[in-house]
Amino acid sequence: MLIIADENIPAVHEAFTPFGEVRTLHGRHMTADDVCDADVLLVRSITRVDAALLSGSRVKFVGSATIGTDHVDLEWLAGQGIEFSNAPACNAISAAEYVLSALFTVSDASASGLIDKTVGIIGCGNVGSRVMARMRAIGLQCLVCDPPRAEAEGQSGFVSMQELASADIISVHVPLVKEGRHATRNLINREFIESLPEDCLFINTSRGDVVDEAALKDRLLNGRSFRAILDVWNNEPVIDTELAGMVDIATPHIAGYSIDGKLRATQMLYHALCKFTGSAPQWDPQSVLPKPEQSVIIPPAETGTIELVRQCLHHVYDVRKDDADLRETFGLPDVDRGEAFDQLRKGYAPRRECSAYQVEAGSLNDADIKALTTFEFAIKGI
Length: 382
Hints:
Structural class: alpha/beta
Shape: globular
Helix content: 25-40%
């Protein structure tokens, strides 16, 4: 069996070599010639999987180590009898931690600027629900807009886009759906952007094409108190550096890039291929998870819960380095910037999630412990 895989899928050789030869390639540059003799194709979001890539090939199983599937022609695969599997929720925790790290970063140094704020969450699935839980754990009120869920579950607990536009913070967590009743391409359009409060903070970690970037640029230019955090962009990897220069936090599509999340995706595809081939699973990703340095956190004494969580989360992941790394590429020519964007993703340093860390109980009160455990920290000493 020949397995062609994106070189950025971690532990792909360790997990899949028992099935046959594993050959890794740059995901953005895969061609039909590269995969024509393959039996299995493993990709990430930057590889378009469709008839142009696979027609006439031997591929019978496609796995995508991603939550989203907008890069895959699922209808064509089904018509060809090609098995497909992806990794829903694999990086949901990582993306939620990114959102909170970024939010704490753009708030004032003590995080008191978040008190009494309302968060509007657009899309409350695997990622959005985890963001909501963490926002509520630090005392923020949440409004939720999710039309597909509201249609399936009833309107209770959900608001419209118009109602949600009153929130102080907007965080977007929808898949990219290009057509249909619940299409999300340019969901965040000019009308919605212009309706947001003057001092609103806008966050997008979903897909770049969900947002009308021209409208967002105009709002950032004309609204001095309006701010944005963007991890995803139109036209990746050659992004609009003028827009990126206007936002508070700009990162190269790495919100879900914790090593925990990426290995979770590898494991999900591994189990799917085991099922497809009738093999018994044997590989365990725990064997390759790196132990974090300073995995025990000693919290500051006599601090409020929101500030405690901020300091513990920034011990785990401080988004400012990722922001600085991307900004260093802005002066490069377009082709070089695109390559640099991809290289930042390919060479991304292993980043563990909060669950890999313990917080010393010390003088923590019940509210502190409840908030920290919502972020999935372990509490040491209780």
